[in-house]
């Protein structure tokens, strides 16, 4: 297995170079970009839908969905009201990388977009190893996954900028030790911005939308 | 990225060779071995606990846990009554492979074991690409993940021998279209043996334990 290490390192540094290019393109067009990462079924797509529905009247939104095989998620984003939605089928690859995002960006008119949401492949490990070149990496945790996840997936919890704790409506029905979960998060990523919410009931969604709104508005070119 | 392909192919065929060696060792010792695969938080460890608790009086059990960083799962298996439990910390690797299992097997006295459960890393994509050399690959799906998972992770659903649908106690609290889920499973893996159950309430666990019991007993050397 040691034979692979140099190759992996080369891919990673090439990836970082492309990620920097992606970020420069987004900055030049004043687009604020988020990358949603999560386990399968934590609710990334539901959060995309909630976010698009909540902000479509304020901002011009685009969604890029990474998936192994289907376009179910991109269709859901369009139904919710995204101006543009693009599906990246990774053909089995377990994560998005900067070159996939670069290719997807060529299909978007960035001057016609304020906010870009990238929905990564459902995987709590591999996506965290590949920077895409966005402004904010968001981890979507969920209550039924269990409170031990920060301890078991430290690399991902350590590297993210923002944490959403989804499915809080299920707290009465599943054992979940919130203090234990929060302690793990705090050890790995002290003070990370956190939004507990439910995409089903809508509880907590307003605070999340207000935070994104502030990020997008901060990037707008001041009018003289 | 194409540069990596030959290396990956070499690793995979080396892996298959080692998997065949692992299977031969298990067969020589009449050990029945299962590999549990699932998303993070689908309930692999809870299923290990239920299985160990339900079968520890009948069989001599060993558990091998794959995890990125902690030994939480191995400790849970021991508390539940496994004769031996071994932790493989992958140090960030997103899956177990045959060489990791081979190394772990050197720490076990296979003549003192009837049933071996390998708990893979929580990941619905990568573990399915690496055979370990066990008799049965078990996918643990769970209700809160959502019913679209077979469609979105077809490689994993296609390749498994047995499907557990865990957390059926949450069916009243989350939207889950069982007919849609089952249709996806049937398309990819027609007739796969399926156990809907709840590790919390215990519903459905007896059928699962009866199935394992039958597999282990079928491998026992007939007494003259």
Give an overview of the whole structure:
The structure is a homodimer of 224-residue chains. By secondary structure, the first copy, chain A, is an alpha/beta fold. Chain A has one domain: Rossmann fold (3-Layer(aba) Sandwich), CATH 3.40.50. Helix content of chain A is 40%, strand content 18%. The first copy, chain A, has eight helices and seven strands; from the N terminus they run αβαβαβαββααβαβα. Chain A has a seven-stranded parallel sheet with strand order 3-2-4-1-5-6-7, sandwiched between helices. In chain A, strand 6, helix 7 and strand 7 form a beta-alpha-beta unit. In chain A, helix 1 runs parallel beside helix 4 and helix 2 packs across helix 8. The longest helix of chain A is centred in the N-terminal third of the chain and has 24 residues. Chain A is globular and about 45 Å long. The termini of chain A are far apart.
């Amino acid at each position: 297995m040691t034979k692979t290490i140099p190759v992996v390192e080369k891919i990673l540094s090439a990836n970082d170079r492309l990620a920097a290019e992606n970020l420069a393109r987004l900055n030049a067009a004043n687009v604020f970009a988020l990358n949603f990462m999560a386990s399968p079924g934590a609710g990334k797509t539901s959060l995309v839908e909630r976010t698009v529905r909540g902000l479509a009247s304020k901002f011009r939104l685009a969604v890029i969905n990474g998936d192994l095989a289907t376009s179910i998620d991109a269709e859901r984003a369009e139904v919710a009201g995204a101006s543009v939605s693009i599906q990246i089928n990774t053909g089995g690859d377990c994560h998005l990388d900067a070159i996939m995002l670069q290719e997807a960006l060529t299909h978007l008119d960035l001057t016609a977009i304020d906010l870009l949401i990238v929905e990564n492949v459902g995987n709590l490990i591999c996506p965290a190893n590949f920077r895409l070149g966005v402004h904010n990496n968001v981890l979507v945790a969920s209550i039924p996954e269990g409170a031990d996840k920060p301890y078991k997936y430290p690399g991902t919890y350590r590297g993210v900028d923002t944490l959403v704790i989804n499915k809080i409506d299920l707290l009465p029905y599943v054992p979940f030790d919130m203090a234990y979960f929060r302690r793990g998060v705090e050890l790995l990523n002290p003070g990370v911005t956190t939004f507990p919410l439910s995409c089903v009931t809508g509880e907590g969604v307003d605070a999340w939308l207000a935070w994104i709104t502030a990020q997008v508005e901060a990037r707008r070119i001041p009018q003289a």
